[in-house]
Protein backbone atom coordinates (compact mmCIF):
# COMPACT_ATOMS: atom_id res chain seq x y z
CA UNK A 1 0.00 0.00 0.00
CA UNK A 2 1.31 3.44 -0.94
CA UNK A 3 2.27 5.75 1.93
CA UNK A 4 -0.01 8.80 2.08
CA UNK A 5 1.69 12.03 1.09
CA UNK A 6 1.95 14.81 3.64
CA UNK A 7 0.47 18.25 3.05
CA UNK A 8 4.00 19.55 2.44
CA UNK A 9 4.56 16.95 -0.29
CA UNK A 10 1.25 17.78 -1.94
CA UNK A 11 2.07 21.48 -1.87
CA UNK A 12 5.54 20.82 -3.28
CA UNK A 13 4.11 18.90 -6.23
CA UNK A 14 1.45 21.55 -6.84
CA UNK A 15 4.06 24.31 -6.69
CA UNK A 16 6.14 22.44 -9.25
CA UNK A 17 3.15 22.28 -11.61
CA UNK A 18 2.43 25.97 -11.07
CA UNK A 19 6.05 26.83 -11.90
CA UNK A 20 5.93 24.71 -15.06
CA UNK A 21 2.85 26.57 -16.25
CA UNK A 22 4.25 29.97 -15.36
CA UNK A 23 7.52 29.28 -17.20
CA UNK A 24 5.87 27.66 -20.22
CA UNK A 25 7.50 24.26 -19.74
CA UNK A 26 6.41 21.14 -21.60
CA UNK A 27 4.33 18.38 -20.01
CA UNK A 28 6.18 15.52 -18.33
CA UNK A 29 5.59 13.11 -15.46
CA UNK A 30 5.92 14.58 -11.98
CA UNK A 31 9.07 13.33 -10.27
CA UNK A 32 9.27 15.64 -7.22
CA UNK A 33 8.87 15.06 -4.34
CA UNK A 34 8.42 11.54 -5.81
CA UNK A 35 6.50 9.87 -8.65
CA UNK A 36 2.77 9.96 -7.96
CA UNK A 37 1.79 6.65 -6.30
CA UNK A 38 -1.95 6.50 -7.06
CA UNK A 39 -5.02 8.37 -8.30
CA UNK A 40 -6.00 9.42 -4.75
CA UNK A 41 -2.72 11.29 -4.40
CA UNK A 42 -3.01 12.71 -7.92
CA UNK A 43 -6.40 14.24 -7.10
CA UNK A 44 -5.03 15.65 -3.86
CA UNK A 45 -2.22 17.33 -5.82
CA UNK A 46 -4.82 18.58 -8.30
CA UNK A 47 -6.75 20.24 -5.47
CA UNK A 48 -3.60 21.98 -4.22
CA UNK A 49 -2.63 23.02 -7.76
CA UNK A 50 -6.10 24.42 -8.48
CA UNK A 51 -5.90 26.41 -5.23
CA UNK A 52 -2.64 27.98 -6.44
CA UNK A 53 -4.17 28.73 -9.84
CA UNK A 54 -7.19 30.38 -8.23
CA UNK A 55 -4.90 32.51 -6.07
CA UNK A 56 -2.87 33.58 -9.11
CA UNK A 57 -6.00 34.49 -11.12
CA UNK A 58 -7.95 35.94 -8.16
CA UNK A 59 -10.85 33.66 -8.95
CA UNK A 60 -12.85 30.70 -7.64
CA UNK A 61 -13.85 27.37 -9.12
CA UNK A 62 -16.90 27.40 -11.39
CA UNK A 63 -17.50 23.67 -11.79
CA UNK A 64 -15.91 20.57 -13.24
CA UNK A 65 -14.68 19.01 -16.44
CA UNK A 66 -14.90 15.33 -17.25
CA UNK A 67 -12.26 13.95 -19.57
CA UNK A 68 -11.92 10.62 -21.37
CA UNK A 69 -15.63 9.88 -21.74
CA UNK A 70 -15.50 8.59 -25.31
CA UNK A 71 -13.70 5.64 -26.85
CA UNK A 72 -11.97 8.03 -29.27
CA UNK A 73 -10.54 10.15 -26.45
CA UNK A 74 -9.52 7.14 -24.35
CA UNK A 75 -7.70 5.70 -27.36
CA UNK A 76 -6.06 9.04 -28.10
CA UNK A 77 -4.71 9.39 -24.56
CA UNK A 78 -4.15 5.69 -23.84
CA UNK A 79 -6.23 5.43 -20.66
CA UNK A 80 -9.39 3.34 -20.31
CA UNK A 81 -11.28 5.40 -17.73
CA UNK A 82 -12.65 8.90 -17.22
CA UNK A 83 -11.00 11.58 -15.08
CA UNK A 84 -12.19 14.86 -13.62
CA UNK A 85 -10.77 18.36 -13.26
CA UNK A 86 -11.91 21.78 -12.09
CA UNK A 87 -13.11 24.80 -14.09
CA UNK A 88 -11.87 28.23 -13.00
CA UNK A 89 -14.36 31.07 -13.09
CA UNK A 90 -11.93 33.57 -14.65
CA UNK A 91 -11.41 31.20 -17.59
CA UNK A 92 -15.08 30.66 -18.44
CA UNK A 93 -16.53 32.87 -21.17
CA UNK A 94 -19.41 32.95 -23.63
CA UNK A 95 -19.08 32.70 -27.39
CA UNK A 96 -18.50 34.01 -29.88
CA UNK A 97 -15.05 34.97 -28.66
CA UNK A 98 -11.39 35.04 -29.65
CA UNK A 99 -8.50 33.02 -28.21
CA UNK A 100 -4.86 33.99 -28.64
CA UNK A 101 -2.79 30.96 -29.59
CA UNK A 102 0.31 32.58 -28.09
CA UNK A 103 -1.27 32.43 -24.63
CA UNK A 104 -0.93 28.63 -24.62
CA UNK A 105 1.95 26.19 -24.92
CA UNK A 106 -0.21 24.29 -27.40
CA UNK A 107 -3.84 25.28 -27.77
CA UNK A 108 -6.43 22.57 -28.29
CA UNK A 109 -10.21 22.61 -28.39
CA UNK A 110 -12.71 19.94 -27.41
CA UNK A 111 -16.36 19.86 -28.46
CA UNK A 112 -18.83 19.10 -25.72
CA UNK A 113 -22.24 19.25 -24.09
CA UNK A 114 -22.20 21.13 -20.80
CA UNK A 115 -24.68 21.22 -17.93
CA UNK A 116 -25.47 23.85 -15.30
CA UNK A 117 -26.73 22.49 -11.98
CA UNK A 118 -30.06 23.74 -10.61
CA UNK A 119 -29.39 22.85 -6.97
CA UNK A 120 -26.95 21.21 -4.58
CA UNK A 121 -26.64 17.42 -4.67
CA UNK A 122 -26.47 15.38 -1.49
CA UNK A 123 -22.90 14.20 -0.89
CA UNK A 124 -23.73 10.76 0.47
CA UNK A 125 -26.14 7.87 0.18
CA UNK A 126 -27.25 8.21 -3.43
CA UNK A 127 -25.78 6.23 -6.34
CA UNK A 128 -26.57 8.63 -9.15
CA UNK A 129 -28.00 7.62 -12.53
CA UNK A 130 -29.87 9.47 -15.29
CA UNK A 131 -32.39 10.70 -12.75
CA UNK A 132 -29.75 13.32 -11.99
CA UNK A 133 -31.49 15.23 -14.81
CA UNK A 134 -33.97 16.43 -12.17
CA UNK A 135 -31.13 18.57 -10.75
CA UNK A 136 -30.02 20.11 -14.07
CA UNK A 137 -30.93 23.70 -14.88
CA UNK A 138 -29.86 23.69 -18.52
CA UNK A 139 -27.70 22.07 -21.18
CA UNK A 140 -25.42 24.04 -23.51
CA UNK A 141 -22.96 23.49 -26.34
CA UNK A 142 -19.41 24.13 -25.14
CA UNK A 143 -15.83 24.16 -26.32
CA UNK A 144 -13.30 23.28 -23.68
CA UNK A 145 -10.00 25.12 -24.00
CA UNK A 146 -7.09 22.75 -23.39
CA UNK A 147 -3.36 23.34 -23.12
CA UNK A 148 -1.57 20.00 -23.38
CA UNK A 149 1.82 21.72 -23.03
CA UNK A 150 3.06 19.81 -26.08
CA UNK A 151 2.64 16.43 -24.46
CA UNK A 152 4.02 13.36 -26.19
CA UNK A 153 0.91 11.24 -26.77
CA UNK A 154 2.93 8.11 -27.51
CA UNK A 155 4.08 8.04 -23.87
CA UNK A 156 1.12 9.79 -22.24
CA UNK A 157 -0.33 6.58 -20.81
CA UNK A 158 2.73 6.44 -18.54
CA UNK A 159 1.89 9.85 -17.07
CA UNK A 160 -1.89 9.66 -16.56
CA UNK A 161 -1.54 10.40 -12.84
CA UNK A 162 0.33 13.60 -13.69
CA UNK A 163 -2.42 14.47 -16.18
CA UNK A 164 -4.90 14.17 -13.31
CA UNK A 165 -2.71 16.30 -11.04
CA UNK A 166 -2.31 18.88 -13.83
CA UNK A 167 -6.08 19.48 -13.70
CA UNK A 168 -6.62 17.39 -16.84
CA UNK A 169 -5.06 20.24 -18.86
CA UNK A 170 -8.09 22.50 -18.51
CA UNK A 171 -7.30 26.05 -19.64
CA UNK A 172 -10.79 27.48 -20.05
CA UNK A 173 -14.29 27.00 -21.37
CA UNK A 174 -16.43 28.72 -23.99
CA UNK A 175 -20.20 28.34 -23.60
CA UNK A 176 -22.92 28.69 -26.22
CA UNK A 177 -26.60 29.49 -25.92
CA UNK A 178 -28.67 27.05 -23.83
CA UNK A 179 -30.49 24.29 -25.68
CA UNK A 180 -34.13 25.35 -25.76
CA UNK A 181 -36.94 22.85 -25.18
CA UNK A 182 -34.59 19.88 -25.05
CA UNK A 183 -35.57 16.63 -23.36
CA UNK A 184 -32.44 15.87 -21.34
CA UNK A 185 -33.23 12.16 -21.42
CA UNK A 186 -32.86 12.24 -25.22
CA UNK A 187 -29.48 13.97 -25.31
CA UNK A 188 -27.96 10.68 -26.46
CA UNK A 189 -29.68 11.31 -29.80
CA UNK A 190 -28.19 14.76 -30.33
CA UNK A 191 -25.50 15.09 -33.01
CA UNK A 192 -22.64 17.55 -33.27
CA UNK A 193 -20.30 18.65 -36.03
CA UNK A 194 -16.97 20.43 -35.49
CA UNK A 195 -15.63 22.64 -38.27
CA UNK A 196 -12.42 24.58 -38.78
CA UNK A 197 -12.49 27.26 -41.48
CA UNK A 198 -15.72 25.75 -42.77
CA UNK A 199 -14.30 22.23 -43.17
CA UNK A 200 -15.70 19.39 -41.09
CA UNK A 201 -13.04 17.93 -38.78
CA UNK A 202 -15.20 15.62 -36.69
CA UNK A 203 -18.70 14.63 -35.72
CA UNK A 204 -20.26 12.66 -32.92
CA UNK A 205 -23.41 12.06 -30.95
CA UNK A 206 -24.45 12.29 -27.33
CA UNK A 207 -24.38 8.52 -27.10
CA UNK A 208 -20.60 8.63 -27.60
CA UNK A 209 -20.18 10.18 -24.13
CA UNK A 210 -20.29 7.16 -21.78
CA UNK A 211 -23.49 6.14 -23.59
CA UNK A 212 -25.34 9.33 -22.59
CA UNK A 213 -24.26 12.79 -21.35
CA UNK A 214 -26.36 12.23 -18.23
CA UNK A 215 -24.38 9.05 -17.57
CA UNK A 216 -21.22 11.17 -17.67
CA UNK A 217 -22.77 13.63 -15.22
CA UNK A 218 -23.81 10.75 -12.95
CA UNK A 219 -20.27 9.34 -13.16
CA UNK A 220 -18.92 12.66 -11.92
CA UNK A 221 -21.47 12.89 -9.10
CA UNK A 222 -20.58 9.38 -7.92
CA UNK A 223 -16.85 10.04 -8.36
CA UNK A 224 -17.08 13.18 -6.21
CA UNK A 225 -19.28 11.45 -3.66
CA UNK A 226 -16.60 8.78 -3.19
CA UNK A 227 -14.19 11.61 -2.42
CA UNK A 228 -16.56 13.24 0.08
CA UNK A 229 -17.50 16.05 -2.29
CA UNK A 230 -20.55 17.03 -4.32
CA UNK A 231 -21.98 19.20 -7.06
CA UNK A 232 -23.39 22.60 -6.14
CA UNK A 233 -26.06 24.90 -7.52
CA UNK A 234 -24.64 26.88 -10.43
CA UNK A 235 -21.77 24.47 -11.11
CA UNK A 236 -20.91 24.11 -14.79
CA UNK A 237 -19.97 20.60 -15.90
CA UNK A 238 -18.49 19.61 -19.24
CA UNK A 239 -19.14 15.99 -20.14
CA UNK A 240 -16.32 15.15 -22.55
CA UNK A 241 -15.55 15.74 -26.19
CA UNK A 242 -17.84 14.10 -28.73
CA UNK A 243 -14.99 14.18 -31.28
CA UNK A 244 -11.21 13.95 -31.08
CA UNK A 245 -9.33 16.95 -29.74
CA UNK A 246 -8.49 19.50 -32.43
CA UNK A 247 -5.38 21.68 -32.58
CA UNK A 248 -6.41 24.75 -34.63
CA UNK A 249 -3.68 26.87 -36.13
CA UNK A 250 -3.65 30.65 -35.96
CA UNK A 251 -5.58 32.27 -37.55
CA UNK A 252 -8.64 30.06 -37.90
CA UNK A 253 -12.37 30.01 -37.30
CA UNK A 254 -13.74 27.12 -35.26
CA UNK A 255 -17.42 26.20 -35.06
CA UNK A 256 -19.32 23.63 -32.97
CA UNK A 257 -22.81 22.83 -34.20
CA UNK A 258 -25.11 20.76 -32.02
CA UNK A 259 -28.45 19.79 -33.55
CA UNK A 260 -31.15 22.12 -32.29
CA UNK A 261 -28.67 24.71 -31.00
CA UNK A 262 -27.17 27.90 -32.32
CA UNK A 263 -23.60 27.37 -33.62
CA UNK A 264 -20.85 28.17 -31.12
CA UNK A 265 -17.94 30.01 -32.73
CA UNK A 266 -14.39 30.73 -31.62
CA UNK A 267 -11.74 32.69 -33.50
CA UNK A 268 -8.13 31.61 -32.95
CA UNK A 269 -5.85 34.57 -33.51
Give a written overview of the molecule.
The protein is α+β, with helices and mostly antiparallel strands and 269 residues long. It has a single domain, classed as Fumarylacetoacetate hydrolase, domain 2, CATH 3.90.850.10. It contains 5 helices and 12 strands. It has helices spanning 7-22, 39-57, 71-77, 160-165, 213-226; strands at residues 61-67, 83-88, 92-94, 97-99, 107-117, 136-147, 170-175, 191-196, 199-205, 236-238, 252-258, 264-268. It has a 7-stranded mixed beta sheet. β11 and β12 (264-268) form a beta hairpin. The radius of gyration is 18 Å and the shape is globular.
Number of distinct helices: 5
- Major sheet: arrangement of strands: 2-1-10-5-6-7-3
Tally of separate domains:
1
CATH superfamily: Fumarylacetoacetase-like, C-terminal domain
Largest sheet: 7 strands, mixed
Written as H for each helix and E for each strand, in order along the chain, the element string is: HHEHEEEEEHEEEHEEE
Instruction: Tell me what portion of residues adopts beta-strand conformation.
Output: 25-35%
Assign an overall shape: globular
Assign the structural class, choosing from mainly alpha, mainly beta, alpha/beta, alpha+beta, or little secondary structure: alpha+beta
Q: Kindly report the CATH topology.
A: Fumarylacetoacetate hydrolase, domain 2
Distance between the termini: 48 Å
- CATH class term: Alpha Beta
CATH architecture: Alpha-Beta Complex
Q: What do the pLDDT scores average to?
A: 93
Low-pLDDT regions = none
Q: How many strand units?
A: 12
| Fraction of residues in helix | 10-25%
Report Rg: 18 Å
